[in-house]
Amino acid sequence: MTEASISSKLEMLVHDDSTGAQRCYLGPREITILNVPLGSFICVVTPTKDYICSLWPSKVRNDGSMIYSKTVCRIKALDNTDSKYRLKPLHVSEGKCIHIDVVCNLSDIARFRKYENLNKKISRICSNCLYKMCVAENFVVDLRHCNLASLCGISKILITKIPSGSLVKVDAEAFIISSHTEIVVDNIRSNEKFNQVSKSTRKLIGGLDDLMQTLEDLIKLPFHHQKQFKQLGTSLPHGILLRGPPGCGKTSLVRHIANNCDAYLIAVNGPEVIGPHPGESEDNLRKLFQHAILAAEEGPCILFIDEIDVLCPKQAKSGGLEESRLTSQLLTLLDDLPADHRLIVIAATNRPSALHPSLRRPGRLDREIMINVPSMAQRREILDLHTQVLPLAEDVDLDWLAEITNGYVGADLAALCHEAAYLALGRFIVKQSERQHIHQEDFLTAFRKHRPSLQKGVEGIVDLKPVLWEQIGGLEDVKQKIKQAVEWPLRHSEAFARMGLPCPRGVLLYGPPGCSKTTLVRAAATACHATFLSLSGAQLYSPFVGSSEKMVAEVFQRARMALPSIIFLDEIDSIVGKRSEGGHRGVQERVLSTLLNEMDGVGIKLDDKMDSQHSRRILEGSIQDVEQHNSKVTTLRRNNLDILVVAATNRPELLDEALTRPGRLDRIIYVPPPDRQARLDILRLFTQKMPLEGVDLMLLSSQTEFYTGADLENLCREAALNALTRDMETTKVTYADFVKALYYNRASLTPESIEKYSRYKSSTFDVSFKIKERKVL
Amino acid sequence: MVKPSAVPDNASGPNFCQLVMDISTNEETKVRSQLHKSFKAVKNCLSTWKEALAACQQPLYQVENLCEQHQCCSDANIEQSGIIKPFPDIKMRLLHKIDVELEEQLSRINVEMKKLDNCCERIGKHCHYSMKSYQENSPYIPLDKVLEQTPTCPAISDMLEWLQQIERLVFQQYHCKKYLLEMFSPKNKDGTENLKNTWSLGDQELINTVEEYLSYTSFFLEEKIT
Amino acid sequence: MDKDFSPVEIKRSPVALGKNMNLTGSPRKVKDTAADVFNTLHKWTELNKDGRNAINEIANIKLDIILSKEAAIEENVSHRNSFPTSLEPLCQQLAEIYKKMEKCVNKLEGFAQIMEGLHQLESYRSSKSEETLSPMFHTWHMTHFVEATQEVFKSYKKELSLKKMIIENVCHVTDRNTMMFYIAAWLHQPYITDDATLLVESMLTETGHRGC
């Protein structure tokens, strides 16, 4: 028999025959080429799938088209792709025996299990369903249109094995099932799982290897070693609680593991369960668990409940009856899970503190696994994975990219790569270039566009306009100090570790207004790629008692999530005042105490802790040992993992002493008004783009004593405006313009105010600080 | 789709058909005569099938009714009413009576099922004969002869396909019914409530399809093929 | 064991005399009584059919009420009277049927007594003549007839008390399942066992009413 390549003109149409007959209709020309009698079985070979159909002439007898049914098909292995379309006549024989897997709905499986001599019954049903069909090994028979099969609830039949020697003819490639064919049902599989397996693509996740191993062990052990567990007399773990910020891969981790452990995954979102009618939510939950238990009878099953905090909130003071009923239902269901189950419940939340505590006691969700925001190394791994398929140009520096993407979770990084790819694509289309590469530039643009999802919806996150150190004129020694206080600990943590230096916890910048304190901080944040959160008094104060403190705590929590981070408290004197002696306790005091606690309290709330390494419980007596042993190992990381609080004020005398003691805002840096040289630098900066004519900046700088940076900026602007007022068409800014501007813009500082700051500077703690500083240098 | 019309063309009615027969080869005649026999058998079977189905209606109705009674009686909370005292065994007895009645009705249906089974077998055999006859002779019949159709005589290929289709439908339909009977239990509420509907699901479709095919072949069946 | 299966000597079996012979004496009486039993049962069956129709109608009315009640509970509206006047004639009809059925059962009791009497007569006669008791017709002894009629009477009596209970309660049913239960109980007559029916049939065959 000859094979016929399908000519390119041949139109392939899918025959949606409601009778489910496996036929294909061809034109007479093609039939002649194939040279087999009508009704014979042929194999339709397409690049991805093979189909077995019986051959019939098309109704309209037209050449060049084919209609075929997809009833019997085989998905080809990916590496075995044959891009040609072919029609191949098959050597067919009658088979004596085949092995099959039956795929049916979960609920029907439960029904089947009730039957006596189950396999015999099912094999007879299958025999009838497959009657006169032609199959071969690894083919799947879709029984959607078979009335009998749908009556019994069978949706597909997989031909798993045809024992050798069971064919009447030895060289047969496919065979027909008759009433004499013996059918052996190997497995009954659920539709759900079958679809899941056939759909699942191995999506890799990066940076979570050790975590994955832990989780996999937790799941695999009870699934595969039930006997040992019984011998040991331990009960199987019931549930696992995954916690961690959104987007860091909780869901994909579970999917991946389900795939790895060959477990059936039922994933549900907490809010999906909740229905509008009373009792509906509980009912949904019950059904969910029933479904899971049913599925677990077939094999390992993972019930994944995302955002479980919705279902099981801490008892609210308002006392939602609905919620408490749902909670108790969930607890009951967890408790009622059969002892020898193969079902594991994994719940995920990003607000573990909002969970009902009884859910987390042993016997329910007794294991907790924390997934953190990826560290730099993890980000690198994730980026590696995502860029694997992308054509990268040589200038792409993934290490650097991993460094700057602080606070980005896996999802963000994926989005970043996609964005970069889109940008590159846009460029190709415009340029029509052949070589398609994604350049570093694309990643950078994407990086600027994309904000990490962790920082979305958080109070205090600001869109930071990047400022380079060079853009700030003068203040060289202040810059140096700030670099040392802010940038060094974050960027050169290993050097700090080497020298046994603790990281500074806080920096206070003070000085007269307008001397670029804020800009300096901005520059520092730009330089070190830390998460930058800014809090101001206006954001903080709300009419509700307690909400200001809550916001402070929240900002700190967020900052911990996205370490390393800088929290910038501008105008700190307006946020927290001095604690008064006179017993008047205002909002400011409460905020102050919160702030002090957050910066240097006894500890942080365990649930808010975002460090994946479980802190060792400190036991009396053993404390030294553990600490010493650990310190060497972890300093490197720990140094890096801190929050730096940077505060700025122009009224340092108003601050509470507790705030400025070592361990809190211990670096106190005076940002002085610019001296002559600095003023010159500043003026140069601001006039860089101005067409000056006959302007002596040196002279100008000496004339502007007591002018702050902001004043100087204003001055330049005024001068330019003056020039324009003179003549709209002018292209020059002259010295006269500056003089005019000088006349109108007076210096905002006075010798007295400067004096005040210097007095403050020379007070006691500043001296001690200076000594300390010298040590560092 | 051009299907042979059931209405004969006046100008070239059976005569034209005869003409085709005349020039056909020996092999072709063999196949055609086998097909002729097969469709005759299908025609007979169809009427048997219809009769058997009709005969099932009454017992089916009874079965459905009895099942409802069975379920209601076993669900009835008679312990509360005073009835249980003088008649402690009434529920058991009643259910037994209903069961006996059910058995009787089911056996009536099974008698009809036997007839359906016979039809199934006959059609299956004829389908096999016809296919075999075609396959044996196919080397000697050119393809255009197999595909040739006239207003009164369908093409051989079409008839073979129809036969297969009929066989498939009949087989499925019979086994669906058989499955229903096998799985039948008055205790299973879902299964019994819709028994009659599930039972007759697809019946009309089957009959329509077979009648359609028979109407295409009606003139062919009137032919005498030697 | 042997004794059980030893051939029976039938000395004066009336059937042996020939089909067209008119029977006299006890056999005649037995045969007539058997026919009467059958006729009474036939009558009972007819009555049962009438009763079924009446009960069906009652059920329709009651189920309507039950349904509307359920709806009424949901809508919080006061429902209709549970005992509409249309029930009354039906109940009366049932009561009449019951009376007739009672008569039938009484008759059956009478037949059982007749049989018993005949049995005593026969045994008295046989004790006089010192003849061994032989089957009345083909195989049955007189005791069989007595037992059979007793059995039939007993089961119909039990059934009658059930009918009484049904008639008394059927109008007071509050849910569908119980209603269906009563209907089914009336229709299927659970206390008339297959044995009883078989006994009557056998009796008819034995006495020659049914050809064998």
From TrEMBL, chain A:
GO MF, any single term: ATP hydrolysis activity
Gene3D superfamilies associated with the record: 1.10.8.60, P-loop containing nucleotide triphosphate hydrolases (3.40.50.300)
One of the protein's GO biological processes: retrograde protein transport, ER to cytosol
Keywords: ATP-binding, Nucleotide-binding
Residue ranges constituting the AAA+ ATPase domain according to the UniProt record: 236-375, 503-675
InterPro entries per the UniProt record, alphabetical: AAA+_ATPase (IPR003593), AAA_ATPase_domain (IPR050168), AAA_lid_3 (IPR041569), ATPase_AAA_core (IPR003959), ATPase_AAA_CS (IPR003960), P-loop_NTPase (IPR027417)
UniProt key word ATP-binding: yes
Pfam entry (one): AAA_lid_3
Keyword Flavoprotein applies: no
Protein name in UniProt: AAA+ ATPase domain-containing protein
From TrEMBL, chain B:
Lineage: Eukaryota, Metazoa, Spiralia, Lophotrochozoa, Mollusca
PANTHER family: AFG2-INTERACTING RIBOSOME MATURATION FACTOR, SIMILAR TO HYPOTHETICAL PROTEIN FLJ20508
Annotated protein name in UniProt: Uncharacterized protein
GO CC terms: cytoplasm; nucleus
Automatic annotation (TrEMBL), chain C:
Domain of life: Eukaryota
The name this protein goes by in its record: Cyclin-dependent kinase 2-interacting protein
Species of provenance: Potamilus streckersoni
